[in-house]
């Protein structure tokens, strides 16, 4: 019984040191409201990512200012994040029209349905991992998903059809974007250690040294052997070695 208690205390102690870094998920929405009343797509993606990572999702009051500056300049205003420690995942989802204006996806669906627009709309989602302490982007990725195809347009004749589009968007967010972000963020925050020594073959023991060795026959060199391979040469020749 004492042994079990000691083991439990040891495991508890190890768990207390294995603290996960805080990751805040901040959705940046092109608009505060939309035509159908659905949750903005940035919010949908942010929620799905939060569930996968087990993180905190914020609705920051300054997110609109950050989004406007990012859309105009491509620069993140780190000072307006208002988060002191940890990491932040910025989620920006939008659809560009023919004039490259960024619109909320649901507003695009409403416009396309009302005016019968036949345009190859593409849903774009940008995810940026920010280090709040240093104010730098640690990782970022852009996901694109075509909303139209040769067989169908991005339209909804009624609210029921709009709900069907919502379910498709949510499925892509949950099963594609969120899972990929979860994998990449975990790898970025917890990089795998590589055992380089195990990947390198041991050099054969010999007494040739580094220089060339030759044999003389009647005073004339007839055989020259190459020097032992260096460590770098072994890495270049070893096909099994990879990062």
Summed up, the helix count is: 7
Roughly how much helix do the residues carry, as a percent range? Answer: 25-40%
Alpha carbon gyration radius: 28 Å
Largest sheet: 6 strands, mixed
Number of strands: 8
Give structural notes.
Helix 2 (41-53) links the parallel strand 1 and strand 2 (56-57). The two termini are 45 Å apart. The chain has seven helices and eight strands, in the order αβαβαββαββααββα. Helices cover 38% and strands 21% of the residues. It has helices at residues 2-17, 41-53, 63-73, 105-115, 159-189, 196-199, 231-237, and strands at residues 23-28, 56-57, 87-96, 102-103, 122-131, 136-146, 213-217, 220-225. The strands form two sheets. Strands 1, 2, 3, 4, 5 and 6 form a six-stranded mixed beta sheet that branches. By secondary structure, it is an alpha/beta fold.
Give the key terms:
two-stranded antiparallel ribbon
Helix and strand topology:
Layout: H1 2-17, E1 23-28, H2 41-53, E2 56-57, H3 63-73, E3 87-96, E4 102-103, H4 105-115, E5 122-131, E6 136-146, H5 159-189, H6 196-199, E7 213-217, E8 220-225, H7 231-237
Parallel strand pairs: 1-2, 1-3
Antiparallel strand pairs: 3-4, 3-5, 5-6, 7-8
At a glance:
Helix content is 38%, strand content 21%.
């Amino acid at each position: 019984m004492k042994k079990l208690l000691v083991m439990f205390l040891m495991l508890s102690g190890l768990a207390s040191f294995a603290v996960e870094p805080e990751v805040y998920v901040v959705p940046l929405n092109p608009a505060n409201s939309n035509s159908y009343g659905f949750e903005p797509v940035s919010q949908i993606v942010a929620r799905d990512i939060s569930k996968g990572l087990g993180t905190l999702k914020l609705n920051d009051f300054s997110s609109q200012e950050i989004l406007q500056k990012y859309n105009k300049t491509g620069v993140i205003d780190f000072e307006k994040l208002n988060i002191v420690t940890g990491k932040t995942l910025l989620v920006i989802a939008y659809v560009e029209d023919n004039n490259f204006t960024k619109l909320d996806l649901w507003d695009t669906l409403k416009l396309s349905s009302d005016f019968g627009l036949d345009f190859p709309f593409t849903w774009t989602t940008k995810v940026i991992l920010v280090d709040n302490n240093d104010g730098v982007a640690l990782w970022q990725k852009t996901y694109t998903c075509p909303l139209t195809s040769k067989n169908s347009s991005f339209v909804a004749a009624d609210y029921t059809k709009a709900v069907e589009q919502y379910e498709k968007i949510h499925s892509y967010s949950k099963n594609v974007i969120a899972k990929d972000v979860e994998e990449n963020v975990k790898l970025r925050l917890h990089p795998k250690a590589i055992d380089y020594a195990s990947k390198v073959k041991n050099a054969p023991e010999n007494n040739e040294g580094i220089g060339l060795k030759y044999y003389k026959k009647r005073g004339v060199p007839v055989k020259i052997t190459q020097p032992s391979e260096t460590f770098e040469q072994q890495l270049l020749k070893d096909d099994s070695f990879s990062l």
